[in-house]
Structures are given as C-alpha cells and as structure tokens.
Design brief:
The structure is a homodimer. The two termini of chain A are 29 Å apart. The first copy, chain A, folds into 3 domains: 70 residues, Arc Repressor Mutant, subunit A; 131 residues, 2-Layer Sandwich (Nucleotidyltransferase, domain 5); 169 residues, ATPase, nucleotide binding domain (Nucleotidyltransferase, domain 5). Chain A is an alpha/beta fold. Chain A is globular, with a radius of gyration of 23 Å. Helix content of chain A is 40%, strand content 18%. The interface between A and B is large, with 86 and 86 residues.
Chain lengths: 400, 400
C-alpha cells in the first residue's frame, strides 16, 4: 500500500528533502549523522540535500555538536522564526488576513470589512492589495495559505456549493490568487486547514487521529487519519455539512436533502432567530452578531435562547455521531462561531453521542471545544502554507 | 505531516524492508542497484536487508541482469506463487475459507454450513479444524487473514455491533484466532478487506481513491484514500452501515436511529419480503436465498419485485451520496449479495446520485458493480494477510 515503492526518482528526492526538513522542524538542531541515522539515508544523499537547503538559506549550520572537527557532526537548524507565511481565511461574509511564523505564532491579524454578495469584487481587490503590501514589507514571507469554504475542488480552484452566498461560487480562487503574489500560494478547504492548525499547533490535539469540526457560517470537517489528512480524489472529502442527516428533510442548494448544515450552521441559527423575537434586531445583524446575541441571551437566563442552543447542539451531536461512525477519530475539536456557545452546546452534543453512538467507540473519543480562538481557520490557512513548506520544499526555492 | 520523520530506528528498518518487498511485488525482478536507486537507500542497507530476506527465503536471486559479474546486478525476485495465505470470511450466517497465493489467485474455496445463533461454537470449532488441516497440508502458507463484520474494534478483537445475529458480539476474534495457528493471523473489518482486494487484484480499481461498498447481510465500507486505507483510531472508521440517513427513522441495535443498513441490507430486504408474497417461501430461506429469489422474480418480470429492488437501490443511492460527500473517492465498487441485483440496482443508485450529489463531484466518480465474485470478501481476507506480509515482513520470519 506504500505508493513510495513505485514513486519516481524526482519524488523520492523531494520526499527525502521533506523528511529532512520535517525532522529538523520536529526535533530541532540535529547533525547530518543524526539525520542519516534516523532516516536511513545515504551520507551522499544527506550531504547533497543539506548542501542545497543550506545554499537556498532554508536551513543553517550551528556550532559543532560533538566537539570534533568532523563536518558530519555540525548542527543543522530550521529556524521557525526566520520564515513567515500569510494566512487568508474566507468564510461567506468574513475575510481575515494574518501573518504567522513557521511555528504558527501570530505576528499580525486583520479583519476585512464584512462581505455581501455585491462587495465580493471589492473584497478580492482588497485582499490583493493587502497581501501584496504585507509581502513587500516583509522579506521573510515565503508563502500564502488560503482557507476557503468547502466543498472545494482542488484541481478546479472552485468551491462547488456555497449555500448562503452563491456569488462566491463564481470566484475561481486558483485563477484569482494562484499566481497573484511573488511567493507560492496554497488553497485548502477551511475545516481541513483548521485540522492542520490543531495538528501542528495545539498541544492537546497532537494525536494522529483528529477531526476538526467547524460549525460556522457553513459546517465543515477536516480529518487527520493516522497523521495524514483525508483528501479524496478532488480534495473534496469530509464534507460533513452536506451529508444528509434526514433524506426526507430540508432541501439544500447542493442538491441533497437534509444536509447537516441546514440545521446547525450560524446561517441556520440566524434564520431561526428571524422567526422568533429572542434577538429582536437579528434582522439587521451579521450571522456572527446574531449568534453571539443568542449566546449572550442564554447566558443572561433567557430560557428560549437556551432551548434553541440545546436544539442546535443536538443537531451538531447528530453530526458528531456521523463523524464517529465515518472516521473514528480519537479526538473531535469543535470550532468556529457556533462553538462560542460553549458548554451548553457541548452538553447537548454529549447527550446525543451518549444516546446514539456505538458505546465502545464513543468511550474512546474526546469531544472538546477548540482552545484556539474562533479565528482558528486563519491560523489554519497559515498551517496549509507551513505544511506545504515542509512537504514540498522545492516549490519554495528554485535552487533546492 | 510525515510521521516517518520521528519514527524509531526499528520502524525505519522495517519500513525499508517493506519498501523493498513492495518494490519487488509491483515491479518484478530487480537488481540491488535498481532498488537502491529507486528507493534512495544506502548500498549497505540494501545489502543487509536483502541478505536477511534471502536467508529467510522470502526472496530469491535470479541470473545476472546486466551481464557483469557484479553482485549488485544480480536479479532479486519475490515469487508470488511461492507463498500462500488462507482467507476466512465471516458474515452473519456465512463462513467461507479460501486458499490463495500472494497474487490473489484462488487455489481452493469452501463454504461452511450456514450458521445460526446456536451453531456459532460449532462453526468456530470447524474453522479451527479446517484451517489447521490446510496449514498442515501446505508448507507454503505464511499467514491467515480473517474478514469480520464491522464495526470491528481492532485493539479489542470484537465486533461492536452485529445487528441481526447478536451472539457474534460475544466472540472475541483475537482471543479465538489470534494465536490459534502456527502462522500469523490478521483480522480486519470485511468491507475494508474487500477494498484491499479490489485495490490489489482488480485491474479496473487500481486507482488511489477507491471505495468498496459492501451491501450484504450488513452494509459496510472500506475506503482507500491516496493509496492508504482509512482506519480510524480503533480501526472502526468508514462504518457506513451505521451512519444515519434519517435521524427520525428506524432505531438500530447500535443505538443510532435511521442507520443505512436498516434500509438496504440483505437482512432488511429479507424482512421486507416476509411482509409480502413476492417470494412466497421467504420465511424458510436464508437471507442470501431470499435476496436471490427476489432478483430472480424481478428478472422474470414481477413488477412488485422490480419496485422493491428500485426502492432498496434508492436507499443504497443515499448511501452513495454520503460516501461521495464523506470520502470523495474516484471509484465506488458495490459488492456482496445485494449487488447481485445488478443493473436495476445500479440504475436506482445512479438516479439518486444524479438528483442529490454535488454535480462537480458526481461527474468525476465512477460507480460500478464489483467484477469480483460475490465472495470478494474472502479474497479480501486473503488481501489483508498479503498486505501485512508486504508491509510488515519481520512478523513472518524470525530471522528477517
């Protein structure tokens, strides 16, 4: 089952370059001899690959590790503070741009003005201008990562369905941004980007079987199975938001019926609020504002608000049961706007999981609210770029 | 994301052994120099690993490949006919035992007597006796692969839920068979075993993103994503049979409500037949016999039979839409008993997929009835053993 066995020579070389970089990323300063031993690579391959990485400035030499004059005992280092990446998060009405280093430390973050159907072209222009300005002012930036709503078709560069703001569907992210900047650009579905961020940066989530369950303007999912993101053939796997929980239920723009995101997204919550007076001025609010007003009302003791959160939480719980049966992760991290409801939401999810999941599986699964801020997806966008930097170094440096 | 970067030395060595074996399995006779070049391993590592594999008799030397006397140009070979594996398939009422070589060629196949709740202990005894007799009579047998209904908990050795024959739940397959034979035993969920068989042996399915959709006494799924089986943390991922398609639907033994297998398994079909007189003597038939009688009635022009198959096919189609959104495979292969309904079933599946799947994704997905015989799962059981042989050679030979 190991595709390496038939991989071409070029991809084997790139794979070994990547293994060396990842070794340095995860293990810190190491000598050539230590790397050679850990990865069972030839001294010749190590010498060749590290020489190119040094020449390209990707890694640097530190002092002698073992007190000898042997070149193979000199320390090699990947300085995570030396390289920066830009992360751009698109939701439907929200766009955020952040600057991060390779360890995921945030250097800056900016929210762009709220987007409506009419302002998409202006928003795209603002992103071009903003990212170009960041890159012009910071030589350390090596890549841009972009997180977009799914189902995102990797090869085509388009989101196949955007339930609540269909104009996004006409944006080809690959055509718009693929070559837009002087550094490489990588685009990934938002929840999958969030899963990479949890995997790389959240100390509690560094397990090899991790799901990031994004409940925001849309509902999305990214799953890391045995240390690897589940992709699908077009990069459109793990589209939990469009998995039906009721084949006789509410029709969705995607063509399916009873899609999960029709019941527990921020958009669905906002719609429900418009039919009640729990949040009287919901009609003039953004989806995020409306959700936050609901959560505040519940915190203030409004029983109807608490009941609506419980109902939404039960639907989120049905989604969790599907995630358990579909992916059997060891940990599910719930993030994005709706997760701000906090413990009452988590309680409703746990209630449904206790009722409906297979006990042997539920007992071994942790479900938690993301400890990263709600803007985890922008960190995820950075994680997409960082993962590419570590896995495909030759993309970043012509002479590697 | 590459776990290799932090793998222990022992697992790196085993990984390189496996890469060499897989190279020989997929590419045929190769010299040490060719392997070293293809895998970028050190000549020392190649010499050491191949010496051990030769000593253990796993591989053999053929003539000189390049007309020189150089030892590194002598051909090395993994003879797939030289090693045999036993495959055992458990369904609920069906047990099959087959003998295969490493290329998946079937040498023999035997169906054991139909199992009922009362005869499980006798069936287990028969399997012990049968497999031991096979091993005693054939020195080439290196492993036993066992395929069991899911959700199968790899670490515990138990199936967590068996809807229609609950006594199986009390069988601990690992305790019963883990050490039962003089060769290593590997146990895997049935549909996942079927996916491995399609991947290894079906020329049409050698794509890297493949789903095997088992619609038999239970409903199961195995998914290969980018060449690797999706496992989950307990080996219980891809349990499509227990994913709800209707959270307000029919309760299932697993605790969930509206589980897919309640609507389109052979057991569900049999239940439906008992409520009609389409197959008058359905009450005295096994699930398989009842399904086959239904399919024969439809073939003979019975409109009610055709309507029932269409209805079941639509439910199978809802499952396919979930598979597309959950895993985005390039190919879905439908197998096991219910797939014997053939084209009318496939037509109903395609009808639902055309209505409900995201068009950009549906357009890029092939859905086909398995070209392997209905007993593909027993071939799958063999594929489980063969995959282990190629991935973990040291398990098979003490001196490797």
């Amino acid at each position: 089952m190991n595709a390496n066995a038939t991989a071409s020579q070029a991809s084997v070389s790139e794979s070994n370059r990547s293994r060396i970089l990842q070794h340095l990323y995860h293990n810190g300063i190491s000598s050539r001899a230590q790397i050679a031993k850990a990865l069972e690579l030839t001294p010749a391959a190590i010498t060749k690959i590290t020489a190119r990485l040094l020449e390209a400035g990707v890694i640097s030499e530190t002092g002698d590790l073992e007190g000898s004059k042997n070149r193979r005992s000199i320390g090699l280092k990947l300085d995570t503070a030396q390289f920066h990446v830009v992360g751009v998060k698109f939701a439907r009405s929200l766009v955020e741009v952040g600057l991060f280093d390779l360890a995921g430390r945030r250097i800056s973050l900016e929210d762009l003005p709220t987007v409506s159907e009419d302002t998409i072209p202006a928003t795209l222009a603002t992103i071009h201008e903003h990212v170009n300005r960041l890159i012009a002012s910071d030589d350390a930036i090596v890549a841009v990562g972009i997180a977009v709503p799914g189902p995102y078709l990797q090869d085509q560069g388009r989101t196949a369905v955007v339930s609540s703001m269909t104009s996004w569907r006409s944006v080809n992210f690959l055509a718009e941004f693929g070559e837009a900047f002087p550094v490489p650009v990588f685009i990934e579905q938002d929840a999958r980007a969030g899963a990479l961020a949890q995997y790389l940066f959240d100390r509690d989530s560094t397990c090899e079987n991790l799901a990031y369950y994004l409940i925001g303007e849309g509902v999305g999912l990214g799953v890391i199975d045995n240390g690897r993101l589940i992709d699908g053939s077009q990069g459109a796997a793990t589209e939990i938001g469009h998995i039906s929980i009721d084949v006789h239920g509410i029709p969705c723009d995607c063509g399916n019926v009873g899609c999960l995101e029709r019941y527990c997204s921020a958009v669905a919550i906002h719609q429900r609020l418009l039919d009640t007076d729990i949040v009287p001025d919901a009609g003039s609010m953004t989806h995020t504002e409306a959700c936050r007003a609901l959560f505040a009302a519940a915190d203030a003791g409004d029983g109807r608000a608490a009941a609506l959160i419980h109902e939404v939480g039960r639907y989120a719980g049905y989604g969790c049961v599907t995630i358990l049966n579909a992916y059997n992760p060891a940990r599910i991290v719930v993030g994005d706007i709706v997760s701000e409801a906090g413990q009452p939401l988590l309680d409703a999810i746990h209630e449904v999981v206790a009722e409906r999941a297979i006990p042997d599986i539920a007992d071994e699964t942790t479900i938690a609210i993301s400890p990263l801020p709600t803007d985890a997806t922008v960190t995820g966008a950075a994680a997409v770029a960082i993962t590419q930097f570590l896995e495909h170094p030759s993309v970043f440096f012509d002479d590697v």
